Amino acid sequence: MFFFFEGFLTFFNSCGNVMDAVATPLWSSPPCGSPMPVTVCSVNPLFQLGRLYYRTAAKAYNMTRYVVESLKLDEIVLATAMSYWHTFVSRLELRRFDEIVLSASCVFLACKVEHYKVRLNRVISLVFEVSGEGDEMEGWRRMLLEMELLLCHTLNFNFQMIHPMKRIIELVPEKHTGVLECAHRLFLLSFMTPLCAKVPADEVAEALVYLVADGSGQLEAYAGKFRYDSVERREGIINVIIDALAVMRKNTGLLKVDDMIVARRKRIREQESSRPSVAHSSGGAESLDATPSAFLCE
Q: Is 294 inside any structural domain?
């Protein structure tokens, strides 16, 4: 086996304990960040995130979506895999792990949970561009299976995930196809945020429908349909979505919502322009002290 994999350490000293070190694939960029987290939103009653969290989550999301689409799987696999990813990151420091190795393990586990028979070698070939058998393939297999075991323990072997799409369909009348399509897009993009791991699925669904219905000027048609009536929490969910769209430079096609995104993007730029310069080590590399989990504050 390649020497690269010989240094891979066992994930557990005892059941559920995290190992002290993990080998990072040579091809992967290091999980870099800034020692000064920049919050991209105003005070949020749910949680606050930094730009780095969204960037890292987007990398995981794009890889997961690529695997799901390549294998022609249902989008529920994407939703479940990203729910696992955010739950893991909220409980353990991501800087100990490579986000792509974690993502590959999440999507492989999600395939099994959602009753898709997908071979691990197929996932490895898509993610790491390794084909056939041999030491390299076996090394990746061992690494992903070790990560999967740690993932299972981190999830407390609770693999069942509830996703908001069903509630979105219940809320939106058949004739409101534009609202449904936009809410569905936001549903998928919401998995770049930890909402799936922090907020009840139906509450996320209602906030997404509220945002789209309000943005399209059709909110009156939804009067009395919402079960969650906390304005503060709804605005908190919407703020997280707007933050993510601003950082990812995404638009909705709804003028009112897109104006919010543009304003948020401007605020982010202003925050960054007034931010102290990033500290550098003697080797000239950015500090690796900050991690996405450091930017997720209850």
A: no
User: 140, 161, 182: which is the final residue of a domain?
Assistant: 161
N residues, the chain: 298
pLDDT for residue 47 = 62
Joined tokens for residue 213: 């219905």
Residue 16 lies in a domain: no
- C-alpha closest to that of 143 among 1, 31, 32, 14: 1
User: What per-residue confidence (pLDDT) applies to 34?
Assistant: 30
Q: Which residue has the tokens 């028979």?
A: 117
Q: Which residues of the chain have pLDDT under 70?
A: 1-48, 94, 275-298
CATH at residue 118? 1.10.472.10
Instruction: For tokens 């534009």, name the residue.
Output: 178
Q: Which domain holds residue 61?
A: 46-161
Kindly tell me the number of DSSP H helices and DSSP E strands found in the chain.
Answer: 12, 0
Please state the pTM of the whole predicted model: 0.76
Q: Clarify whether residues 179 and 133 are in a common domain.
A: no
Number of domains in the chain: 2
Nearest alpha carbon to residue 93 among 21, 142, 3: 21
Tell me the C-alpha distance between 50 and 211, whole Å.
Answer: 22
12-62, pLDDT tens digit by residue?
333 344 333 333 333 333 333 332 233 344 455 556 677 888 888 999 999
Structural domain includes residue 224: yes
SS3 label, residue 119: coil
Q: What is the DSSP letter of 171?
A: H
| DSSP character string of 45-76 | SS-B-BHHHHHHHHHHHHHHHHHHHHTT--HH
